[in-house]
Design brief:
Radius of gyration: 22 Å
Oligomer: single chain
Strand content: 5-15%
Helix content: 25-40%
Strand order of the largest sheet: 7-4-8-12-9-11-10
């Protein structure tokens, strides 16, 4: 059975709960417009007139069958199995604040403090100053938590400080790192990346085990916390973007500055050959997560576009696709927006190595305007938070019941 790194064997019986909950036309539309890559190879499952047939990965095992809804089935659509609630299924507001009862998980992207350099999320243009994406995302989460709580939401931080959520550390993944390198054709890899750059660094045991620690084990740990402890209605993954800055010891500013948001989708055929990835995609598709995720992401993107005035980022690679007419919204298959079993809006505003943005982020969170580079500018963190709040308020004002 082929699994993704650190992935778990899926329980295919969980798909049985979705039998007759979705028509073939609905399934094909979601697959075609959101979850597949445009012009991709045929998927590793079969869509028949009556059902979806999914190989479970075991030799000799018959495919799992998920029956489609037929014309004879009840027109009343049951709520999809799961813990999250769409805006229309939240309790009526009855004059209360617009986000009342909504459970939100704020996921500050990456790690901060001592871990930022390992993650290559530390940027410094002169001694004595730096910005670290993990610290910035945590500060943004704290600002947002207060604003959203004031609007009635129940808000949890997935990461409370600079430390990892996972209890494991890079040295715990030595064997896994060596296995990955061996499977890629590097049976005798270099141990350390000290003094190496580019692809040579990526092909070392040290880099592979660190990546498994902060990019895979950490997200799996956050997924466990989200799905089994917090059980939110939505997750907001808070990030800051960057363009290539070259050598970390002599980084370069970029003239670009932009914004985009991500929903889950755009699965490559090679990704779907991994049994856990295939299963997780189908759980989201049959669970109709996209029906809430897309309008939510669009509303938040529009709010952030208004507050930041940033232009949309444009993907030129096949790992992301447009999914509606909003130029700020793309679908992409990321571990975080796949593992969290509810609507996820993954936020990527600003370019940290854009010179004015860098200076604004160095200044931290402040109210009003301050003089930076000869211009009076607002706090980038404040504009980020205002945009998110604006988008959420507009989404739930539109889709929630008042009585």
């Amino acid at each position: 059975m082929k699994l993704s790194p650190l992935g778990s064997k899926p329980d295919w019986t969980l798909l049985d709960a979705f039998a007759r909950s979705m028509s073939r036309a609905e399934f094909e539309k979601a697959w075609r417009e959101i979850y597949s890559q445009p012009n991709s190879l045929p998927p590793p499952f079969e869509i028949t007139q009556e059902a979806l047939l999914v190989p479970g990965g075991q030799t000799g095992e018959p495919p799992r069958r998920v029956s489609f809804q037929s014309a004879a089935d009840s027109a009343d659509r049951p709520a999809p199995p799961g813990f999250w609630r769409s805006a229309s299924r939240l309790p009526p507001l009855q004059g209360r604040p617009v986000l009342s009862d909504l459970v939100i998980a704020l996921d500050p992207g990456h790690l901060g403090g001592q871990w930022a350099a390992m993650e290559e999320r530390l940027l410094s243009f002169q001694p004595g100053e730096d910005i670290r994406e993990g610290d910035l995302s945590l500060l943004t989460a704290r600002v947002l938590k207060q604003r959203l709580t004031d609007l009635g939401a129940i808000v949890h931080l997935v990461r409370e400080n600079a430390e990892p959520v996972t209890s494991r550390r890079p040295q715990d993944f030595d064997q896994d790192a060596r296995q990955l390198l061996t499977e890629s054709g590097f049976a005798s890899p270099t141990e350390s990346y000290l003094g190496l750059v580019g692809d040579a660094k990526l092909l070392t045991v040290q880099w592979q085990r660190e990546k498994l620690f902060y990019r895979v084990s950490e997200i799996h740990a956050r997924g466990g916390k989200v799905n089994h402890q917090i059980r939110p209605d939505i997750v907001l993954c808070l990030h800051y973007n960057a363009e290539s800055w070259g050598d970390a010891s002599a980084p370069q500013f970029s003239p670009l500055n932009h914004l985009h948001t991500l929903v889950n989708g755009c699965y490559a055929n090679s990704e779907l050959m991994q049994q856990d990835v295939r299963f997780e995609m189908l759980m989201r598709l049959f669970g109709r997560v996209h029906e809430e995720e897309l309008p939510l992401a669009s509303a938040v993107a529009e709010g952030m576009a208004r507050s930041t005035t940033l232009p949309p980022y444009v993907y030129t690679t096949p790992n992301a696709r447009r999914v509606n007419d909003n130029p700020y919204v793309y679908a992409r298959n990321l571990l975080a927006n796949r593992l969290y079993l509810c609507p996820v809006v993954y936020l990527e505003p600003y370019v940290m190595n854009h010179e004015e943005t860098y200076r604004r982020l160095l200044a931290g969170h402040y109210h009003g305007r301050t003089l930076i580079g000869g211009r009076l500018v607002s706090s980038a963190i404040e504009d980020y938070a205002r945009g998110v709040v604006d988008g959420l308020v507009k989404h739930y004002q539109k889709h929630r019941r008042n009585s």
